[in-house]
Amino acid sequence: MMSHISRDTNEQTPLQTRLDKLTSSIGKVGLLVAFLVLLVLLIRYFTGSTKDESGKREYNGKKTKSDEIVNAVVEMVAAAVTIIVVAIPEGLPLAVTLTLAYSMKRMMKDQAMVRKLSACETMGSATTICTDKTGTLTLNQMKVTDSWFGLESVKASPSSTLSRKVVELFHQGVAMNTTGSVFKAKGSSSEYEFSGSPTEKAILSWAVGELKMDMEEVIREHEVVHVEGFNSEKKRSGVLIKKRREITVHWKGAAEKILAMCSTYYDGSGVVREIQEDDKIQFENIIQSMAAKSLRCIAFAYSDGETKKLKEEKLSLLGIVGIKDPCRPGVKKAVEDCQFAGVNIKMITGDNIFTARAIAVECGILTPEDETNEDAVLEGEAFRSYTQQQRLEKVERIKVMARSSPFDKLLMVKCLKELGHVVAVTGDGTNDAPALKEADIGLSMGIQGTEVAKESSDIVILDDNFASVATVLKWGRCVYNNIQKFIQFQLTVNVAALVINFVAAVSAGEVPLTAVQLLWVNLIMDTLGALALATEKPTNDLMKNKPVGRTAPLITNVMWRNLLAQAFYQISVLLVLQFRGRSIFGVTERVKNTLIFNTFVLCQVFNEFNARSLEKKNVFRGLHKNRLFVGIIVVTVVLQVVMVEFLKRFADTERLNWGQWGVCLAIAAASWPIGWLVKSVPVPEKHFFSYLKWKKRS
């Protein structure tokens, strides 16, 4: 199993696919703009349109020295390269990594250990969660609450009301056909402790307490000849035992499976009776009534053994027990939260269909509307028997799959992925490993999970609680949302810088933002901006949105609205400064360029606040809780002051007076009211580019 799952699929996450497309598109645009700027600058230079500060032509045919031409061309190429550097959002991988690393650390406190970093953001795109029942939706604290011997229910002290023969056979069937054990508690002669799976512990506890079973004595008196371990396909386990010369066969497993193997049954008095058709219907009704009360039904059967092979037919039914595994507190609320967030919850369990249905109703997975949906609940065998086309048609309507095998879970995951769903799967057993590996997000259980299951998973749920799965979903959406915030912020910077330099190059033959200044903007905006926006914590508002799935665009209409409005404002103001700055403020060319640079940087600082929320107008909400954000803003402003006032030679700037600083701050601060007004403008749900595609098709 480990060798099967250790092969890396190298499959990209939905976000990685989107980011690759985005960076590729932006890179192409940047290259195009850089090429056009270089072309325009070269044409202007060699046609004599470019003039120096004294008004003379920089290129004057043969009179111009070759060194001057080379230097001029190198400067033009440097300007073009700088545009490429600004255009490509190299801060994006850093922003993504910072967001994921920060979220990973915080998720540990919420009982989720992330093994694969990209799983954090993939969970934010999840459209379907396939969950186990036992231990995830339920407490995995099982207890026998109902027992039937023959067609009679025995509520209390079965050891005193049943015949000695039936009790002895039950002792054999429980003690010899189990993977658990019983031992006396330390410091007590009357109390016992039990080991094994929760189901085994529940049965052993009941047998010791109610049937007065002495497990050590039973094991001492009997010899095991042959064992058939529990099989998830057959849902049963069997043992062939020998006492002196007497050989007997004992089976234990899913009640309906064991009943089908029986032709007779023991009543409470120890009399063997034939199972007539009416009796079979009664037994089936007993199983269904127990299952309807969310009980797991386990039956015990016995037969005399003639050979060393386990007999599988014409057995005698000894009895049926019902095991209660209560739902976890808060699981219904967690399921409702996921459903409200537009995520489909599917329960996949090995229990029979009636128990599965009852638990699903109790947890809120099955709603009254599902009663009209005949495909809502089905068995794994039925799903397996469908053709691939039938499975694809029905899989989205399935809410509960009972009596399922690990292969059925894997089959469901593959079908859902084929339909474009982003699938999260919970699992704890070794056999769940292929499904956990195949899913977009594998969630293993920290308490009940096997090592193979954990190795196959992306995230380990430390408390085995479905409520923690809902929390992971919220964190995933937070990661995705933070990355979107940074992209909006980053693209605003890129669009504004590209347009300003391009327009200035075409009209004036020079770029107002120098290579050093643009690289400085890139450094503080990419690194510090990423850190500031990557550390926003999840809010309940994130669970009100629909899942983004696998195909939804990374840049939404809301983001386009926000970034284009801010970019348009910045471009307008900075172009006014570029062409009218000297006359408006009565300053030199170098001071004008410093004003442009300073205003541009401060606009990004103020816009960083706008980026905190894509849709909400109040961008200051919760600001006091995010000290890192406030700290980064302060550091950015201090560094900008140092850059302008003290690094004149390096940054190619001039010192500004208080009035000029005030103008820069006032222009930059206007982005707040603009952001507030723009967020009042409604945008269509259908993405802008989808209209273009539709027109092309038509």
Automatic annotation (TrEMBL):
One Pfam entry for this protein is Cation_ATPase_C
This protein's GO CC annotations: plasma membrane
Note the SUPFAM superfamilies from the entry.
Calcium ATPase, transmembrane domain M, HAD-like, Metal cation-transporting ATPase, ATP-binding domain N
Q: Which residues form the Cation-transporting P-type ATPase C-terminal domain?
A: 511-680
Write one Gene Ontology MF term.
P-type calcium transporter activity
**The protein's role, per its UniProt record:** This magnesium-dependent enzyme catalyzes the hydrolysis of ATP coupled with the translocation of calcium from the cytosol out of the cell or into organelles. Catalyzes the hydrolysis of ATP coupled with the transport of calcium.
Its protein name is Calcium-transporting ATPase
